[in-house]
Design a protein that fits this description.
- There is one protein chain.
- The chain is an alpha+beta fold.
- The protein has two helices and five strands; from the N terminus they run αβββαββ.
- The longest helix has 22 residues.
Length: 121
C-alpha cells in the first residue's frame, strides 16, 4: 500500500492520523493503544523524546472535542505517557496546536522531552 506523499517524499494530506498512523500504512512505534486512543513515537520527531497521543476516532481539534468520556480517556493516556517520560527523563512538555498551528486536522497531543532537534540537515 503506498503512502500518500508530496514532492518532499513526506505525507502532505490533511489527516496523517486517520490516513496513515491509525490504519498502520506506515510503521509506527506504539507506546499505548486501546479501543479509543493511540500513542506512538513521532515519525519525524522535533525532540529526542516525542510521543503523539490521538483519539482513534476523528476529532478535528481540542476545540471540537465534545465527547467528555473520550476527553477523559485521552487525558488519562496523556497523563500516563507524560508520567512515564518524567520518570525516565526528569521532565516532559505537553502541548497541542490549534488553528493555523495545527498541520494535521486531527486532535493530537505531543508529549516531549529534551532540547529541540536540529531539523535543517
Amino acid at each position: 500500500m503506498s503512502l500518500p506523499t508530496g514532492s518532499t517524499g513526506y505525507y502532505d494530506g490533511q489527516d496523517f492520523y486517520c490516513d496513515v498512523a491509525i490504519p498502520r500504512r506506515q510503521p509506527i512505534e506504539v507506546v499505548h493503544e486501546d479501543e479509543e486512543v493511540l500513542a506512538f513515537r513521532h515519525t519525524r520527531p522535533f525532540w529526542p523524546v516525542h510521543i503523539v497521543v490521538v483519539p482513534k476516532r476523528h476529532v478535528e481539534s481540542l476545540l471540537t472535542l465534545e465527547d467528555q468520556a473520550l476527553a477523559a480517556k485521552l487525558l488519562a493516556v496523556v497523563q500516563q505517557v507524560a508520567a512515564d517520560v518524567v520518570a525516565r527523563e526528569g521532565k516532559a512538555g505537553v502541548l497541542t496546536n490549534l488553528g493555523e498551528y495545527q498541520d494535521s486536522k486531527h486532535l493530537h497531543i505531543h508529549v516531549h522531552a529534551g532540547s529541540p532537534l536540529d531539523r535543517t540537515s
